[in-house]
UniProtKB/TrEMBL annotation:
Residues 1-15 have a biased composition (Polar residues). GO terms for cellular component: mitochondrial intermembrane space. It is found in: Mitochondrion intermembrane space. Its cofactor is FAD. It catalyses: 2 R'C(R)SH + O2 = R'C(R)S-S(R)CR' + H2O2. Coiled coil: none annotated. One of its GO terms (molecular function) is flavin-dependent sulfhydryl oxidase activity. Residues 93-193 form the ERV/ALR sulfhydryl oxidase domain. Its EC number is 1.8.3.2. InterPro entries: ALR/ERV, ERV/ALR_sulphydryl_oxid_sf, ERV/ALR_sulphydryl_oxidase. Keywords: Disulfide bond, FAD, Flavoprotein, Mitochondrion, Oxidoreductase. This is Sulfhydryl oxidase.
Length: 203
């Protein structure tokens, strides 16, 4: 009897290093995973490869495999997996989940900062359509699903700039809390996304 999709997914998840996220197809998702987690995944040595060696005899090289003891194999595997650190990210790499998230939040917060004080029906309709499309179109399916659930509990307020800025800030803070990051003061959205710091350091 073959394994079910759930069994295969569970088995694959158990083999993944921490931080690597599976996509809807059951495979590791690059845009759902931070680069620092994805890179070690590509460098991992499999147990089978780490537990075999190629020996050389006096008569020349012999391509035979000899199993080494389990303790040595475990040490070899552990040393072959690099630690999870912030690796330098080449500029020409596709965005990972963190880069995509920062860019998306920057776009949304800035758009809200320049949204009309009182939106007319056309402006409100377009903004609502933009926000409503994200749970369907956002590349990271896990992020999109979470945003969709948040929007069901708290529908977007597109009536004007202040209301939209606060709504986005509150949704962003929900993500921050989920990720263990500090919350942002929603009274400072204009300072952060429109006017700049009061000390003029961005002028």
């Amino acid at each position: 009897m073959g394994t079910t999709n759930n069994e295969e997914s569970t088995s694959q998840t158990q083999k993944l290093p921490p931080g690597v996220v599976l996509g809807p197809d059951g495979k590791p998702c690059k845009v759902c995973t931070a680069f620092r987690h994805w890179k070690p995944l590509k460098n991992m040595t499999t147990p089978k490869a780490a537990a075999t060696t190629t020996t050389t005899t006096t008569k020349g090289p012999v391509n035979s495999q000899h199993t080494i003891d389990p303790i040595s194999a475990s040490l070899a595997i552990a040393s072959a997996i690099p630690p999870i650190i912030d690796l330098p990210r080449p500029d020409n790499c596709p965005p990972d989940v963190e880069q995509l998230g920062r860019a998306t939040w920057s776009f949304l917060h800035t758009t809200a900062a320049y949204y009309p004080e009182r939106a007319d029906p056309t402006q409100a309709r377009h903004m609502y359509s933009l926000l409503s499309a994200l749970p369907t179109l956002y590349p990271c399916s896990h992020c999109a699903s979470h945003l969709g659930e948040c929007m069901k509990r708290n529908p977007p307020d597109v009536s004007g700039r202040a209301a939209l800025s606060r709504w986005l800030c509150e949704r962003h803070n929900e993500v921050n809390v989920r990720l263990g990051k500090p919350s942002f003061d929603c009274n400072k959205t204009d300072e952060r996304w429109k006017d700049g710091p009061l000390d003029g350091s961005c002028d």
